Please model this.
Amino acid sequence: MSHSVVPPTRLRVPYITAYDEEAVPYRLTFARDREATDGWRLSYTDAIPLDWMFGVLWSRQGLHRRGQPRWKLVNTLRQRNAMLRLLCQVCGQPAAGPDGRVSWVLADDPGGPATGEGYTNAPPTCRQCVPEALIACPRLRRGAAVYSVGEAEPYGVIANVMGPDPAGAIVVEPNAVIPLDAFHRLEYALAVQLLVALRDLRPIPLLMAA
Model:
């Protein structure tokens, strides 16, 4: 039987939060690539194959969670991992329930129950962590909805689109939303968050989420 949850008295650092000692120095450049649309692709000067996924270069960060939490920043690699493996953004554990459906807390209407689909950069939140997420995040406190989601798949990235510069590369369009089928734009982008498309959204009452 559904029941309301007593809010936690001590808030954890969410799984996807970045820490100040996780910053990794790197240098960007544009490298020749015969498979790229115009023969050039954004790259690191010391790039390795794992730096790319979905045809786009990803921002480098550590995963050791040392230092002070940067509460307003997201660790790129943990955010991507949470999206791909459907892990809770608070505790890092699987967010799917016994029925296989995944609970998601959304600050913005992703398309609404009328359409039943949309996309988001916010990873899922397991039902046990929903009350904590609503308390800890100022944006969610201003207004949020909880959904049970039937399907989630990669849709695109939030990325900084780069342009050539004598020093290597400069940002020409920050925080751009780029779908995964926009191949040319992806070749000039440094991805910082993964977007997933959500389908079969069913609203869950906030106080009945756990």
